[in-house]
């Protein structure tokens, strides 16, 4: 993402976020810093908490790098990986010198120990590589070494341990190694690589064959829509051997050699061998825009939506939102914006106008600094947008100033801002810099951006986001709500659509597609799931909080028995992207049937019932329609209007293609007569005529339904109130 604009928010004086530690090497110790990366434990506190970088857990402690090929503990409620230092390596001359992070990029992080040892940790690499500069390698293990076999040149050593694991140590030149793992104080200059041998015939041969080429870094190129291209920087000779995740393999397009029999176990599914220093990953294009996926018809169905919308627009605050929380204020803004888009879709301009006024009153103060309840500020210490309340209180705004949940909070702001910029281009031009700053905060792709780190939340290797920020966790980074992550990237694409920015559209949609793929692969637990163990699969339909090292079915705010919440947090907010997140109708039925019994529990609120009924609408819209009308309350980011738009846009009869059904519905509505409604004693006329916008430019900005910009959506012409 390339921007010429500087970030526009006032500087914050945060007392909450810690100062960056000395674990950042001097050459990179300057903002903006990554705050949600998978290796962040290496720079927090003492840097001694292990991280999981497929296929190994890695800990740096007292000058040693300890490597663990983890086993898993499984319970119906959780899966976890426990760290055990299977094999440790250090440099004698550096003693207990702590590491520094000397380099990082999209796919790797490099630890340095003084001047004699460097360790490039590249994710998905079956070897851990140690670069010695005239130092003495020191090896240790907590296990008994049952057998040591070395080749004549003493460049390959096979260790058979009493825990059932076999490890191989490779050296670029002679390196003596005894059964007690001593090296006889042999000074060494060159490359040492270690690897745990996975089960499977021929695995040793594969490791031997590719042991001489090692990666030292890697980037993920997102310059082409719906494509991500990995490129690794390598040294040595020969071809590069890496490991692929299951959802990599679903979209992997170009590679030289696949080695499915060479596989490591992981909490994210089997890691299979791929040979090649470039991968191309290509998702299916998304076809989505501002409005519902299938259109709203027939005209009498629109009447139901309009009646609900007229009531709910009356409930908008008469002046502006006063909610101080960035999260809940953002949800309320996005709820109103969604109401405005639905009103456009059903040709109710009076509602659109009122939503427009509400959004101007409620969103602008966040940008011009006049909102009394809170403020958006720029944290120059780490390089990111935070809130005034969050900068003073670590618990405020769910830890926003600790860089928790940035994509969740600012995704809602971007959605509301995109809609307002669509409705009011003049407002959009005035505040474009602020909207873009929020999008840059959580999904900047420009490594040269001086204000915001690259891809703060999205992890290109696992292809999903992390929500946890500057907190050291034994289980690594985590994320709870995938639907809010998907919403964030969809919202950024809408910002691009509002301003006619193809690059932002394409990056936003590409991340939307990748996040969605990972959500369906890792959070959705189908009955035929082969990633998780049977005891976990049979007991669950969804992961609650996904950690790098754990799968937890409890939520941050509720136990796993609250199934309506476990479902709802993976559905909200409801928008046109919801149907794309849940394409497997059989699984949707399983989810709803799994959650329905929980609705009879004491204390269940209608706010959470609404999300269960929303999914029911995807396969049983008539019943869902009735149940939705029985609700008396909704989530603060949801509304009756929104639920009705979803359910009414679904056809009970699946016998005809949606596109044809929609075309006929639009033709019918062209001939419909004007309707009259009243709200607060004021009468409104709502015309159902559907036309294009007034100019080609307006059509491009307002009507585009994009699959990397495909023009096919509808923009209702406003009619005049009576």
What tags apply to this protein structure?
22% strand; 19 helices; alpha+beta; Beta-galactosidase, Chain A, domain 5; 8-stranded antiparallel β-sheet; 5-stranded antiparallel β-sheet; 722 residues; globular
Q: How would you summarize the topology of this molecule?
A:
Elements: E1 11-12, E2 51-53, E3 56-61, E4 64-68, E5 72-75, E6 78-81, E7 87-91, E8 100-105, E9 108-113, E10 117-122, E11 128-135, E12 137-140, E13 145-150, E14 156-161, E15 166-171, E16 188-196, H1 203-209, E17 213-221, E18 227-236, E19 241-244, H2 246-251, E20 252-254, E21 257-264, E22 271-275, E23 278-282, H3 299-314, H4 326-345, H5 349-368, E24 376-379, E25 384-387, H6 388-392, H7 406-423, H8 425-443, E26 458-459, E27 464-465, E28 478-479, H9 482-498, H10 502-523, H11 534-537, E29 545-547, E30 550-552, H12 563-568, H13 578-581, H14 585-595, H15 606-616, H16 621-630, H17 640-648, H18 658-670, E31 675-679, E32 682-686, H19 696-703
Parallel strand pairs: 1-24
Antiparallel strand pairs: 2-3, 3-4, 4-7, 5-6, 6-30, 7-12, 8-9, 9-10, 10-11, 11-16, 13-14, 14-15, 15-16, 17-18, 18-23, 19-22, 20-23, 21-22, 24-25, 26-27, 28-29, 29-30, 31-32
Helix pairs in contact: 3-4, 3-17, 4-5, 4-7, 5-7, 7-8, 7-9, 8-9, 9-10, 14-15, 15-16, 16-17
Outline the structure in words:
- The chain has 722 residues and is of the alpha+beta class.
- Among the domains are: 13-216, Beta-galactosidase, Chain A, domain 5, CATH 2.70.98.30; 556-652, no CATH class.
- The protein has 19 helices and 32 strands.
- The strands form 8 sheets. The chain has an 8-stranded antiparallel beta sheet, with no helix packed on it. The chain has a 5-stranded antiparallel beta sheet with strand order 2-3-4-7-12, with no helix packed on it. Strands 5-6-30-29-28 form a 5-stranded antiparallel beta sheet, with no helix packed on it.
- A hairpin with a 2-residue loop joins strand 5 and strand 6.
- Helix 7 (406-423) packs parallel to helix 9, helix 8 packs across helix 9 and helix 9 (482-498) runs antiparallel to helix 10.
- The longest helix is centred in the last third of the chain and has 22 residues, at 502-523.
- The model is unreliable at 653-705 and 707-722 (pLDDT under 50).
